[in-house]
From TrEMBL:
Lineage: Bacteria, Bacillati, Actinomycetota, Actinomycetes, Kitasatosporales
Protein name: Uncharacterized protein
Superkingdom field: Bacteria
């Protein structure tokens, strides 16, 4: 992972997702962007980071592992534990 400046120049308010997880985005003076997401583990399921800068957008998708990784099982188990409290 590339080194990031120690202090973000912009930090967005957290967004709370329907299941209670929170997402926060920070931007740094060097142009980098950081996403902070509660509710680990995740797997990277989509990354579109190149193309025509005039018309394309960068896309990064994180998933609780529904593509067969052990992250999917762990996420489903965590949801079950929350429901049985």
């Amino acid at each position: 992972m590339a080194d990031q400046p120690s202090k973000a120049y912009f930090v967005a308010d957290s967004i709370e997702l329907p299941d209670g997880r929170k997402v926060r985005v920070s931007a740094y003076p060097d142009g980098s962007i950081r996403f902070r997401v509660d509710g680990l583990p995740y797997v990277l399921t989509e990354a579109y980071l190149s193309g025509d800068p005039e018309k394309d957008k960068a896309i990064v998708k994180l998933s609780p592992g529904k593509q067969g990784s052990s992250a999917a099982y762990n996420y489903v188990e965590e949801l079950r534990k929350r429901d049985h409290r």
